[in-house]
Amino acid sequence: MDQTLVSDIRTRYAEIRGKIDDSARKVGRSPDAVRLVVVSKTHPLETVRAALEAGIRDLGENYAEEAVEKIHAIGVVDGLTWHMIGHVQSRKADLVAQNFNFMHSLDSLKLAIRLERFAAEAGLILPVLLECNVSGEESKFGYAAFDPAQLETLRLEAQQIAQLPHLEIRGLMTMPPLYDDAEKTRPFFRRLVELRERLSKQIPSVNWDELSMGTSADFVAAVEEGATIVRVGTAILGVRPPKG
Length: 244
Ligand SMILES: *Cc1c(COP(=O)(O)O)cnc(C)c1O
Known about the structure:
Blueprint lengths: L2 H24 L8 E5 L5 H9 L4 E4 L2 H11 L6 E4 L8 H7 L2 E5 L2 H14 L3 E6 L19 H12 L4 E7 L12 H17 L7 E3 L6 H7 L3 E4 L1 H4 L7
Parallel strand pairs: 1-2, 1-8, 2-3, 3-4, 4-5, 5-6, 6-7
Bound molecules: pyridoxal-5'-phosphate.
């Protein structure tokens, strides 16, 4: 184990955690209400092991196959939660349902039905967030919530997903466009908050509490706007190697 790497990660994690706590307090929120997921996508196994050694217990991954290799190599670790935060093709639903503990990027009924099937087979209930595109930027996945005409689709699909016995909707996730100035992202975080209010009224049987939003670039604004989960990679684990 590279102890320098472990101590670097520990230091940066503590710094980010401190900023999250300050941002939460600044707007009168409890720091405990914000969970910090460390995004380890494309990082090698040794970095993931160092993160675990540094005490990190929430890891986020984007690519199903790459992640499953790591998850199997790491094995059982007390309190460890694996978060899927990337776009998942329906044919890879089995990998997600069988290996992840939290799914942030659910963006279609088709995928939900596949996840339901494999979660049922595995005898577990998978917590999910509905990924919403609130910016309209073309490269982003998620329900097209920026388009008022699509909000009805979101409502109808959410209603059907809510009926699936092995998926549990917990809230919403978004990945806004990247700006140099984090303030530019703030309106998109607000839109996700508004969308949650709307869905809470439309489908009150679901607990819509969770809002997964904010990355290294803009987690402060996200926490100020109400994020309950932030997904931070680069600021804690360093620059990512390119996808292999
Ligand atoms: C990569 C990624 C992150 C983390 O981004 P950083 O800029 O490294 O903090 C967060 N969310 C999603 C969906 C990602 O793909």
